[in-house]
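Write out the 3D structure for:
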Amino acid sequence: MGRVEGVIANNMNITGKIKECIIIGDPVEHSLSPVMHNAAYQELGLEGQYVFKAERVKSGEVGKMVNRVRKEGVRGLTCTAPHKEEVMQYLDEIDPIAKKIGAVNTVVNDNGVLKGYNTDWLGTVVPLEKVTELAGKKVALLGAGGAARAMAYGVVEKGAELKIYNRTVEKAKELASELGCRAGSLDEIREVKDCNIILNSTAVGMGERTGESLVPEKYLTDKHIVMDAVYVPLKTKLLTDAQLKGAQIILGTEMLLCQGVAQFELYTGEKAPEEVMRRAIEEPLLVCK
């Protein structure tokens, strides 16, 4: 933990020329994005040029935050839940992939022109493709929010057969119709036992819902690959249950890392030091485990 704290401390000694990058969300206190990005800045000797911070911004206040980005010349704005869709209306340009996904998690400020991107889909696809071919795989996605949009786009783009399960079926159907896949209720969750891959995009498993899972243990098998977007705790109940059944699991830190690598390169134009970023996010979670 000492090394991570040192990264943050070093970035407190900054000059007026510093380029700020800020992650906004509600809540946002749990985010490890500042630790990850600041560690990368230090590794590349950029700590005197960039600093990455976190700020809690409530729904309805995103427009005010975007105005601040313009006024103060903030270099990058990272959006986490629940702001990935709301932020789009305030931007000058939106990358075609982000437009198709319908959510933005990365905003780059180029001399006052704000362009929105989505790197979350890479955070899903890159870790999955390290362990399996996605084309033709049957995938179950839990949730239909901003993160789900990116996860759904990624696997469908790679040729997977996707079904989205959500508490509000209408929202799942809306997303499914946009991407040409299927949708259903969480009441149909037993169907996941016949899938190859299970993805959780919801907040179930963290915060007040730590220790909970949307998938009953009896539906998990050793044939599954299970990925969770939640990374605090490091292993959610879903991942723990899946691992006990012999399934292959992908930690939420891998999604955070892979989307963060792409984001770092958009903000800085530098190649991201991936292993340094991985260690920066895993070390505090292992200490707290």
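Residues 1-15 have pLDDT under 50 and may be disordered.
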